[in-house]
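INFO batch 0412 | record 1 of 1 | parsing
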Amino acid sequence: MEKQLKYPFLKTIKKLLSNVTRQNSKLYFYFSIYTLTETIFPFFSILLPKLLIMELMLGEDARITHIVYIVLWYFVGSSIVGFIRTYVNETCYTKISYLRLNYLRDIFAKLVNLDYKYMEDPMFLAENGRALESCNTNESGVEGVYHKLFSLPAVILTVIILSVWIGSVSIWILLGLLFKLGIGIWLKRKVHSYEYEMKADIQKQERKKGYYYNTTYDFGYGKDIRIYNLKDRILANYKAEIDKFIVLKKFIANKEFILGFLGLLALLVSDGLLYGILISKVVHGMTIADFSMYLTLILQLSFSLNILGEDLSFIYRELAYAHDLFVFLEKDLGDKSGNKKAIENDTLEIEFRNVSFKYPRTDKYIFKNLNLTIPKGQRLAIVGVNGAGKSTLVKLITGLYKVDEGEILINGIPIGEFDRKELYSMFSVLFQEVNILAYTIEENVACKSSNIDRDRVWDVLDRVGLGNKVRGFKKGLSQIMLKIIDEKGVEFSGGESQKLAIARALYKDGNMVIMDEPTAALDALAEAEIYENFSELTKGKTAVYISHRLASTKFCGAIAFFDKEGLKEYGSHQELMDKKGEYYKMFTIQGKYYQEEGGLVETV
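INFO prediction complete | emitting tokens
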């Protein structure tokens, strides 16, 4: 059995209309004017043929003047009504677009305020994708529904008037036209239901296709594609995904064709019967003038019924996406927090008490009953094997993730009691992923567009070794980064971008400094410079330094070694070396590697 779309149809419409009332209730006035003019407009064309034929059949010369008056009446009347209709329609089009853009704003507002854990939840990402799709274009989704709801009252009113008019002549003609409407709506619902069911498969295929497409024009992949001769493979994969996408589209098109062909046969039979009934009326005494009018009536009603069927089917289909939008917006995804202010004029102590954590929709714990204290002013190195949760620890410390069990305390206060923005203000963090924005250099460092302390910006740039480079730019701190917006923007190397990210963390001057692999993209000299200045960079603050390079540990007072089972060893560098455990083994292996590469172990 074919699955049908199921969602609260009337409730969704009510929400859409209540949003109109809340944001721009004047639209209802425009709806009324449009409905009136759109309903009146077709009657000029319906009445004109009958009036002209009646005058011509009288055959009197004086009637020529009447014919001229009729044509002038038609021209002036239809022009005035048509102008008002078009003006109102064009005016409202933009106003309706604002409704959609406001929904987009609501989506984006929800995204920037939601609990961070959802950003890595595949199910949430799919729901967010459907919500965004409902607001993507002017002609579909919520805006498409608004446009149809705007024009629908006029269509319904026209259908009612014409139906009563035609029904007074022949109820069979009216029933035949209603049969056409029923067939059309049924067919479109079948097609739309099938399209909606296939949407998930199509979106999945579009993501795959989009990945290979993006890879082909992303300059970041250019070197690898050329050096490793990946062009043919990527293009072959791209073509394969396109072929799969086309197969899905053809599958839908074939079903639409079969249903459409059956519908066409039914409509041809229906039209034949309708015109046969009308011709029989002429045989039994209907005048040619009345015949022309009723023929126009039937054509107009048939057209209006077709529009009504298409509009209702469109609304039925697109409301499903609008419903997805409302479900997304009404979900409680907020980042719940307390109301405590940030700790001022003091560095931080972080305490993990029996903390257990796993990622959303997974069963594997990253940490289980973790106990760890980072005293005030301590410089702690967190090291360990890949996949041990070192970066996850940063997200827990900064409150991006909430623990499943246990608690995290900041200076003895549960982390959940802090206001979220106040909490974030206490940390200067350098994450593994360095994100440079297409803003000026000073805006990238200060992370704001006004009230920037330029002297402080220069200070942190000098401290990370970027000052002279920036002074070499004609615009200095006002130089735009990246070329995506400004073709004269500058591109930093990977190492320079990482230095800029360090400068950003230093400018913020949080109570605690966290650096997650800060030297991953730096050369040996730049790395050594960061190590040497680490004490100065973190002076007077609690600092956490995460790295897989154990050479960094000598700059820290304590070391926490993690493996995939959690915290394995804790102590100073010498204590862990004397213990000859996992840290000792890894340090010895790295030291041997550095020694073989040129005696770098001597710097450890």
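INFO post-check: The two ends are 70 Å apart (CA to CA).
INFO record closed
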